[in-house]
Amino acid sequence: MKTIYLKKFGNVLVSRPSGLEAFNAIRSTLDPREAVQIDFEDILTVTPSWFDEFLTRLADYTGGNVELLPTENASVLAILPVLKMAREDDVALIVRRALARM
Amino acid sequence: MNEKSMRIGTVAKMLGVTVQTLRNWDKAGKLRSMRSAGGQRFYDPALVRRFQLDLVTLGLAWATSEQAPDIPSQYYCERQDRFTSRLEKMSVELLRVLGSDARDHVALITLVAGEIGDNSFAHNIGNWPDTTGIFYGYDIDKRYIVMADRGRGVRATLGRVRPGIVSDIDALNVAFTEVVSGRDPEKRGNGLKVVRNVAQSKNIGLTFRSGIGIVNIPKILGDMQITMTDRNVRGVYVVINF
Q: Which of A37, A73, B2, B239 lies at a 20 to 30 A Cα distance from B128?
């Protein structure tokens, strides 16, 4: 399983265009058939827009084969319940699996 | 009146407000003038400069004035990347002042400011009515952040995908409470719902104005209220207390 360390993109992750840019930057390193996991270590803040864009692209690309590693990051913990409620696609499944483990 | 004192028209231009607004502020004690022997108003330049540095006043002037007022460049983010870099700088300063024990609090303050500032750019791109960019200032000692844009406002941007929205209050209600599950035709996420949850459950206060609608979430844990004001905000005007 491949791990994506979000800290490679900075420790304050803001805006949809920047979330898309981050996805585009790593896409060539991903195999769509391989599962990926997201590591939040050393991130201070990720905003809902950045995360929504990044995770949606990643979920589309991998067919939902994404896991979120457990984290105590306050911004991530604030975003996940709203995403879980708002989405009805692979993103919702990814978030539900993650919340069940945290 | 001495040579250095300023006439009311000069001050109005400097602050980006009308002469009548200055008269009102004078009556309300917000910005006091002095009177010449002939009864003309004039102003102490030092007082005007101090007033100009008041972020709440400056931000509100940016959001409400007919024409974009001159603001110190340190508070103006013309483009998204400038805003993002200043937001990062703010988070570093917050961590330094509030301490590493406050890391979660800093993370959430940054989330709230980051999402709101990002919305200003995302929802007005290519459609700014006059001046692009946002006002973004903060005072860590006084524990507040002020943000404002001269964009189209929440009702106009939401109205494109929800034609049924007829008032600013409806628009704010949808933006802060209704889950938008689809991504198309507009990539409007659910960022303001996250902002609302954070402000309601942590010690972060929020005043968010657009049009004549106003959202208030008290700093000390409390529920959101959406009401009406009597002064129109062109785009969005926000004060975050922490």
A: B239
Task: Please give the Cα distance from B179 to B195 (Å, whole number).
Answer: 13
Question: How many CA atoms lie less than 13 Å away from A58 in the CB half-sphere?
Answer: 31
- Residues β-bridged to residue B87: none
Alpha carbon distance B173, B183 (integer Å): 19
Instruction: Enter the tokens of residue B75.
Output: 């508070």
Question: Using a CB-CB distance cutoff of 8 angstroms, which residues of chain A are in contact with residue B105?
Answer: 74
Q: What angle do CA B238, B240, B242 make, to 5 degrees?
A: 175
What is the token pair recorded at A96? 């539900």
Among A10, A47, A83, select the one facing B115 at the smallest CB separation. Answer: A47
Contacts of A73 in chain B (CB under 8 A): 107
pTM of the full structure: 0.85
List, in order, residues 6 or more apart from A71 with CB less than 8 Å away.
A40, A41, A77, A102
ipTM of the complex: 0.96
Residues of B numbered 83-102 whose beta carbons fall under 8 angstroms of chain A's beta carbons: which are they?
A: 83-84, 87-88, 91, 95
Tell me which residue has tokens 């989405």: A87
